[in-house]
Amino acid sequence: MLKLTGIHKTFFPGSINAKHVLRGVDLTLNEGDFVTIIGGNGAGKSTMLNAIAGVWQVDEGQILIDGVDVTRLPEHKRSSLIGRVFQDPMLGTAASMEVEENLAIAARRGKARTLRWSIQNAERAEYRKLLARLDLGLEERMNAKVGLLSGGQRQALTLLMATVQKPKLLLLDEHTAALDPKTAAKVLSLTDELIAESNLTALMVTHNMRDAIAHGNRLIMMQDGNIILDIAGEEKKKLTVEALLEKFSLVAGEEFSNDRTLLS
Question: Which residues lie closer than 8 Å to 125 by C-beta, 6 or more apart?
Fold first, then answer.
């Protein structure tokens, strides 16, 4: 469902501030893979997700999504293949529009527009069912402006919007980092449910090692723009934070030193 081959990305090339962020990244995801990504600051995690989404063009390499070469496609032309949830709960929704209007936009992405009432009763009933799953009371606030919602409510809504069309690839960029622990756990549980029931292929960047181990069927660790660990199957099921740190030390030749990740 996703294939990255020899991906390189350098910011500010040819200048004193040049930074080679991705260094020949190779990665293949099969349909239904749920891969968590861990690594320190500057490891290349978010840069890789942005490269896949088309936020910026890569310098070298090829990106295939479901067999389609999207390497040179701009971001808006990849959007029909990708669902995305950002770290900032303020992104991914239209704050000045109502909850049901945001869901309607997401549900109609890529479909032809016609002259009719914007939201039909059948659609409204479907949105109510979707929102009820969140257990956040949003099914009773469908006409509320999204800008009035809490960060957790917005992030849960964004997750519904990103998956309602069942994208080829779901990108989650530290989507629970800005939430309190209880809300983060609820959003992660919903993430697991939506990915499993639609057999979505997903990449989830996280700074929390326990979350990286507990979720998904595969874990990759990045360091200095490379994938240095790729753990799946029974090995991942038995993995502990201590074992992951030990594996990192063996491969990288140094101790993992990112405080934010370790403290999480």
Answer: none
Determine how many CB atoms are found less than 10 A away from the CB of residue 71.
17
Share of the chain above pLDDT 90, in %: 67
What's the chain's Rg over C-alpha atoms?
19
Superfamily of domain 2-81+168-263: P-loop containing nucleotide triphosphate hydrolases (3.40.50.300)
Within the chain, all domains assigned CATH 3.40.50.300 are found at 2-81+168-263
Instruction: Give the list of residues 6+ apart from residue 197 with CB closer than 8 angstroms, or none.
Output: none
As a whole number, mean pLDDT of residues 30-41 equals 94
Say if residue 262's pLDDT is above 80: no
Q: Are 41 and 177 in contact (CB under 8 A)?
A: no
DSSP secondary structure letters along 188-236: HHHHHHHHHHHT--EEEE-S-HHHHHHSSSEEEEEETTEEEEEEEHHHH
In degrees and rounded to multiples of 5, residue 191 shows phi and psi of -60, -50
